[in-house]
Amino acid sequence: MQHLDQFKKPEDIDKVIYAINNMKTRPIKIMEICGTHTMAIAKSGIKSLFNENVKLISGPGCPVCVTPNDRIDKILELVKNKDIIIATYGDMLKVPGTKIGESLEKHKAMGARVEIVYSAMDAIELAKNNPNKEVVFLGIGFETTTPGSAIAIEVASAQKVNNFSVFSMHKLCEPILRFLGEMEDFDIDGFLCPGHVSIIIGEKGFEFLTKEYGIPSVIAGFEGGDLVTAIYKIMSMINEGRVEFVNEYKRLVTYRGNELAWNMVLKYFEPTDDLWRGIGLVKSSGLKIREEYSKYDAVKKFNITLGTSENITVCRCGEIIKGKKEPIECPLFGTTCSPENPVGPCMVSSEGACAAYYKYGRL
Q1: What ranges do the domains of the chain cover?
Q2: CA pair distance 189, 180, nearest whole angstrom
């Protein structure tokens, strides 16, 4: 068995791939839990580098993909109010609710105020420039983007921007990974842990995967070499019967992460049971705005009732993000559902498993 410290040069990546493909092991399933990893793996053609020993599975790492249609329906009701401006990241524009064909993009084309922003602070400026309108920022994403929403609430409070609120759909990684790990039929052998989230919550945020669930796990960067190296380390651990947690992204990820950013999140948000598309209600997996800042909570400001279950559809996005099906196994993939006419969020998002599979050769 060759060890990674024997490979010193960039061109040695071919030797790493050779070593992976020649390990004497059963087929190993490795799940990436980051949408950017999903897209990087597809774009780089990494799956095609390995033999049947390695099976890469996309997990619930795309925040758009896990947003339930109930939340989308509530947003589509808000956008009908002429006194409301929806401020959102671009990935949310085409996400359908329960009514096929209805989306923020469609309402925008019909004259509704839907503004694409690049940060929560852009939404604050939008509120300042439109004092007679209510600006609702769609807070979506995992631990990586939540600090931005927290900062926006702090700024709105300090500057008394009272026509601004956040519709929090922020999710937490640890609860959903525990949920998956405790499923009776969960059969993932290793995890590629997300680099961006790890920058915020640190190595300590994912150590439980090995300590409590006995699953070899590696924090990976986003370059092809980062991902191949991380896969090699997982394969080596399994081949040698070791269970370890490795930070392969030390150039940006520390043990404790960005505590300043995370403390800001905890100041304005608290965990809550939350609904995940295709998965269901997961305990303490979402973030809601704390009561003392409820004036900036769109759910309370507009008396929105959040559902605790969702309608079952033909779209197989839920099974895909749980690692139970490949995109090609969905009966809608590539026919009824395409990037031009997405039925489910896994095809809508630029980081969705179906979009990656469709765009990069359907590997």
Answers
A1: 69-171+264-301
A2: 12
- Amino acid residing at 46: I
Distance CA 331, CA 349 (A): 19
The rounded distance, in Å, linking the Cα atoms of 35 and 33 is 7
What is the mean pLDDT for each group of 10 consecutive residues in the chain (363 residues)? 52 83 89 90 90 90 86 94 95 83 90 95 97 97 96 97 97 95 90 96 97 96 92 93 95 96 97 91 96 97 87 75 81 82 76 80 52
Which of 346, 200, 345, 193 has its CA nearest to residue 269?
200
- In this structure, are residues 344 and 317 in contact, taking their beta carbons and an 8 Å threshold? yes
Q: Quick count: other Cβ atoms within 10 Å of Cβ 265?
A: 21
CA torsion angle 12 18 19 22 (round to 10): -170
pTM, two decimal places = 0.89
User: C-alpha angle 147/149/150, rounded to 5°?
Assistant: 60
Q: Cβ contacts of residue 356 below 8 Å, gap of 6+?
A: 38, 39, 41, 42, 43, 58
| Domain 69-171+264-301 indexed as CATH 3.40.50.11740 | yes
DSSP secondary structure string for all residues of 22-57: T-----EEEEE--HHHHHHHHHHTGGGGS-TTEEEE
Angle between helices 120-129 and 146-158 (to 10 degrees): 30
Query: 339: which 2 tokens?
Result: 């990037």
DSSP state of 109: H
* Composition of the chain by helix, strand, coil, percent to 5: 40, 20, 40
